[in-house]
């Protein structure tokens, strides 16, 4: 969920952005088949990968870069979800499931709650290279999976799924905002300056440069404020939140959720 893949929570006229409900079990791990991709799809991956990889230095956080290294994605062809799932399982006890599109939020969070990341296995058409409103594997695989290899982030992500399932009404919406400003658009303070860990920024050609620019307001991590901060999926983000550490993120979310009766 991000600007690239739109959001499970925003209305859209693009049918690819209308959340779907699975009516059966999605294949997971070794059971995920590798599609017979046309050559053009591999070329799209290759171009997107090379272009975005070149933009990460000095922008992406160390944890993401280490995760990307651990994932070992091929540069010249689309990675296999089953292989990626194997890496995640060894690193953080997570698996990948293959889903056909944007999931209804309830099902999406149910996957996270049991340490499974639901990923698409198709890639954007060439005419949407710079921006696609729909979900695709470049966002899901390139941006999401590396961060999940980080054990602290992996635990936080699962807890977010659990708490979202427990939340109702306004609290569900608050968790969606939390998701947006951390998982998708989060930034972290480091000794070398502010870096990005948000997957929506990391997979977006425009957003990764924009987000670190001086014109974006960067606020200190504040769970109560994040939970009430509105956002617009259709524009580059004007306000972002910066964590001091992944421990702060994990503990801050836990404390906030507990206060609202959602967590342990
Ligand atoms: Fe996403």
Description:
This protein is of the alpha/beta class and 264 residues long. The chain has a single domain (15-259), classed as Aromatic amino acid hydroxylase (Phenylalanine Hydroxylase, Orthogonal Bundle), CATH 1.10.800. 45% of the residues lie in helices and 9% in strands. It is built from eleven helices and six strands. The protein has helices spanning 39-53, 62-71, 81-92, 105-113, 137-148, 151-166, 170-184, 199-202, 207-211, 223-228, 246-259, and strands at 95-98, 116-119, 187-190, 193-196, 217-220, 239-243. Strands 4-3-6-5 form a four-stranded mixed beta sheet. It has a two-stranded parallel sheet with strand order 1-2. Helix 4 links the parallel strand 1 and strand 2 (116-119). It is globular and about 50 Å long. It binds fe (ii) ion. Fe (ii) ion binds at residues 1-2, 5, 139, 144, 184, 199-200.
* Side-by-side strand order of the widest sheet: 4-3-6-5
Please estimate the helix content.
40-55%
Poorly predicted regions are 1-11
**Name of the top-level CATH class:** Mainly Alpha
CATH topology: Phenylalanine Hydroxylase
Q: What's the tally of helices?
A: 11
CATH H-level homologous superfamily name: Aromatic amino acid hydroxylase
Largest sheet: 4 strands, mixed
Strand content: 5-15%
Oligomer: single chain
Mean pLDDT across all amino acids: 93
Q: What is Rg?
A: 17 Å
Which outline best applies? globular
**What is the element string, with H for helices and E for strands?**
HHHEHEHHHEEHHEHEH
Give the name of the CATH architecture. Orthogonal Bundle
Class of secondary structure makeup = alpha/beta
Q: How many domains make up the coordinates?
A: 1
Number of strands: 6
N- and C-termini, Cα separation: 25 Å
């Amino acid at each position: 969920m991000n600007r690239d893949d739109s959001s499970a929570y925003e209305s859209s006229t693009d049918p690819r952005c209308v959340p779907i409900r699975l009516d059966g079990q999605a294949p997971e791990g070794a059971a995920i088949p590798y599609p017979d991709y046309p050559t053009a799809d591999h070329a799209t991956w290759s171009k997107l990968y090379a272009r975005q990889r070149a933009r990460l230095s000095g922008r992406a956080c160390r944890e993401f870069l280490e995760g990307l290294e651990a994932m070992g994605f091929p540069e010249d062809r689309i990675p296999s979800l089953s292989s990626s799932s194997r890496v995640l399982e060894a690193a953080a006890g997570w698996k990948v499931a293959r889903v056909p599109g944007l999931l209804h939020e309830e099902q999406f969070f149910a996957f996270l709650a049991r340490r499974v990341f639901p990923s698409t296995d198709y890639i954007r058409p060439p005419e949407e290279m710079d921006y696609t409103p729909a979900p695709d594997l470049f966002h899901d695989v390139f941006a999401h999976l590396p961060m999940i290899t980080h054990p602290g982030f992996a635990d936080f992500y699962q807890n977010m799924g659990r708490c979202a399932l427990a939340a109702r009404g306004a609290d569900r919406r608050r968790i969606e905002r939390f998701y947006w400003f951390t998982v998708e658009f989060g930034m972290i303070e480091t000794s070398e300056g502010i870096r990005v860990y948000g997957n929506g920024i990391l997979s977006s050609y425009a957003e990764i440069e924009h987000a670190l620019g001086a014109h974006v307001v960067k606020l200190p991590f504040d769970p109560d404020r994040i939970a009430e901060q509105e956002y617009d999926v259709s524009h580059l983000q004007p306000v972002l939140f910066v964590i001091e550490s992944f421990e702060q993120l994990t503990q801050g979310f836990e404390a906030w959720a507990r206060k609202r009766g959602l967590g342990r």
